[in-house]
Design a protein that fits this description.
Length: 395
């Protein structure tokens, strides 16, 4: 093999040197292209998938929080701007982010994230429905059933009941005054007073929820029962008209007591404010679930994003090492080949040049040149040796 290389012509040796350097350069370029292709794949995944997934997940999470905040604003203040804000958040943030994540999920590598996102999609449907139910019922009479009973049923009935007591009192005032009738007037007055107090106490309890008002209500109902019983024991003193009004009053009072008791019981119930109850039992817990799931997705996607970034950095490091290796190895091989080719050409020519100079000076005692190859230089050395021999013969 070495002899064949030695016998190559000068042109072929030079061509061989350039070819080897070209092959090394081509290998380096191909390796760089392959590594750059891998790097571009990772970079594309990071920019167009991982980072967008993290961004859209954050946007969806913020949208859920913003929609819930707008709903609370509508519940507390009843201003139309909060309704518009909530609908805007769904239209411009939640739904577009969900659609984008749906497309991105087709390229996700974490199967658990795909499951979490499918669960989030189902939760968002229910979350939107719950929010709409709350929005529709807030600031309506249906939202506060206890208030509805009190103001639409109990209060008008109380007014009618007090009107009947007043009518009995007016009729009593037209009769001849006796100690018993005066006492009857006092009992009617006391009954009317406790009746009015019951209504105001129930209203205060509805507004505040203070247990002291409930205790006062129970006390007033007991007092009113006693006064009614006491008044009932004196019905023999009533005229026919008074008795008729009293009997109507008793019916009204029974209904009033039932309505106020129902009102108190409703206020004690967690559902006394339906919008708040739906928010606390449905919308808010579901929002927390959605946020937790999105949080898990974010943690996973950020970890994958970090892994891709580290992989990209590793590919860059490999590329640098490879380029440095090709530079060192290529330089070494080029130096070895260049030196070898240069030596195989320059030394024989130098020896030949020296011999020719000596011949021109008349020196015939030169040693023959060593012929180590069958190429042009070897032929020149052989020709020089023949010329030297003939000149010696002519001498």
């Amino acid at each position: 093999m070495i002899k064949k290389l030695r016998d190559l012509s000068v042109g072929n040796k030079i061509n061989l040197g350039f070819s080897i350097n070209t092959i090394i350069l081509a290998g380096a370029i191909i390796a760089v292209i392959i590594l750059l292709k891998k790097f571009n794949v990772i970079l594309d995944r990071v920019i167009h998938h991982r980072m967008v997934t993290v961004q859209k997940t954050h946007k969806l999470l913020n949208g859920v929080n913003e929609s819930l905040a707008a709903l609370r604003g509508w519940m507390l203040l009843g201003e139309e701007k909060f309704k518009k804000e909530r609908h805007h958040v769904w239209k411009e943030e939640i739904i577009p982010s969900e659609d984008n994540l749906e497309k991105l999920s087709m390229d996700w590598t974490d199967s658990n994230n795909i499951k979490l996102f499918q669960a989030v999609k189902d939760d968002l449907l229910k979350f939107k429905k719950y929010q709409q139910e709350i929005e529709d019922i807030v600031n309506t009479s249906e939202n506060l059933p206890a208030h509805k009973i009190l103001f639409e049923k109990a209060a008008p009935l109380a007014k009618e009941s007090i009107a009947n007591i007043n009518e009995i009192t007016s009729l009593e005032l037209s009769l001849k005054a006796t100690p018993e009738r005066k006492a009857l007037l006092v009992k009617l007055g006391n009954l009317e007073v406790t009746f009015s107090q019951i209504l105001s106490t129930v209203e205060s309890y509805l507004l505040s929820g203070d247990i002291n008002y409930k205790k006062r209500y129970d006390s007033l109902i007991t007092t009113n029962d006693e006064r009614l019983a006491d008044l009932g024991s004196k019905i023999a003193l009533f005229s026919t008209k008074q008795l008729a009004h009293f009997q109507i009053f008793e019916i009204q009072r029974t209904r009033f007591k039932a309505l106020t008791t129902e009102t108190i019981n409703l206020r004690e119930s967690p559902e006394w404010n339906k919008a708040n109850f739906y928010l606390a039992s449905k919308a808010a817990p579901l929002a927390i679930e959605i946020i937790n799931k999105l949080g898990q997705m974010l943690i996973s996607e950020k970890k994958i994003l970090l892994d891709d970034e580290l992989n990209a950095e590793y590919q860059i490091w490999i590329l640098k090492i490879l380029l440095a290796a090709f530079l060192i190895i290529g330089s070494f091989i080029a130096a070895v080949i260049g030196t070898s080719i240069s030596k195989s050409i320059s030394e024989p020519i130098k020896n030949l040049n020296h011999g020719l100079k000596e011949l021109t000076l008349g020196n015939r005692k030169l040693k023959k040149l060593e012929v180590t190859s069958n190429n042009e230089i070897g032929e020149l050395n052989g020709s020089f040796n023949k010329l030297l021999e003939r000149l010696r013969l002519w001498q």
